[in-house]
Amino acid sequence: MADAALRLRDLFGQLLGVPLPVRIRAWDGSEAGPPDAPALVVRNRRAVRRLLWKPGELGLARAWVAGDLDIEGDLYAGLEMMSGLVWERGEDARTLSEVLRDPEARAAVRRLIVLAWPPLPPAPPREELRRPRRHLHTKSSDKRAISHHYDVGNDFYEIVLGPSMVYSCAYWPDPDSTLETAQYDKLDLISRKLGLKPGLRLLDVGCGWGSMAIHAAREYGVSVVGVTLSHEQAAYARKRVAGEGLTDRIEIRVQDYRDVEDGPFDAISSIGMAEHVGADRYLEYAENLFRLLKPGGRLLNHQIGRRPQRDEASYHLDEFIDAYVFPDGELAPVGTTVTQLERAGFEVRDVESIREHYGLTLRRWVANLEGDWDRAMRLTSPGRARVWRLYMAACALAFERNRIGVNQVLAVRAPESGASGLPLRSRTWN
């Protein structure tokens, strides 16, 4: 009799101490659980082995990337249900070691081992980046991490991001707007916060595929230097710049921002780049940008932030995102970001949270990916496409539920006179 789903439901429920909220569909065709709930599809015994050998988030992620696990039905509802079991158990949830002190739990694990036979550790999917963590955020390690994330293929990113080719939170006039309109509005909002006008010189740190540089030069008449560590991004951006007829006003470089020496600039935009810097290097990052600005110049730092922890020493990186998406990426609370910018000498003049906007943006990116799924898999790999679908959908939920946020911080390198150059009512850019 086909009963793997029933056995999985009962055994995992016993280990977790709560009933599974999702339906399980197992490799033998059996199903168990709430009939109207999204289905967690367990395609083979290897999925169970992955969870046994690496319990928790990383085991689930490896099973997902390898195609051993899937969610059938509403992806967001399924992930929300699973997140309650894996990521949000609460302070009273038992640790794995506590669970295994329970004789009944140990018996459940033994039965899972039998069900998952043979009990050999599966190799991680090839999309997982495995590297030593001894030397984070050196120039060479940052270059390797950026390449892992961004050199996936420009054609793949065109599917996900759409014509705007902007890989950061859009700014939505309303939820029914197009992604392209919302990304235009975000770039324009940043340009206005920076006070861009003809004759100024802008440094775009982490320039991506050139969208901010092109917008600033085309719409505001500034000269732009854009720097990225990704060769694929730089080649794509240069082609776009040439197509716009802006080669006389935009220079795209493959260069670490720490190596930029031809300042000072009138303005600096850093959009979705600071997440790669790392907590230990953040003051250095802020000091470098301060050095590159003219007195009176403005910095717009657009950055994802996490919620503060009661015990910051206990904070750890998200295992899935660190292994598959943003190697060595680190999120900091917005208060930490503001403090470090001020320690570097900046005067922080405005902080705007646009958290809800990122949920809308990510859902559009997921829809773009799903709408051209077969081509996306051909352009990268089935595993890489699954990484992006899971990452973006889970992040959409995280922004919507206020687990993480995104903030635009406007800071000024005030001159000795103390005049910031900002209008008395600084929110006039809205």
UniProtKB/TrEMBL annotation:
One of the record's GO molecular function terms: methyltransferase activity
Domain Polyketide synthase-like methyltransferase residues, every copy: 156-397
Tagged with keyword Cytoplasm: no
Top-level lineage group: Bacteria
UniProt cross-references to Pfam families, sorted A to Z: CMAS
Entry-linked Gene3D superfamilies: Vaccinia Virus protein VP39 (3.40.50.150)
Homology family: Belongs to the CFA/CMAS family.
Protein's UniProt name: Cyclopropane-fatty-acyl-phospholipid synthase
Native species: Streptomyces lincolnensis
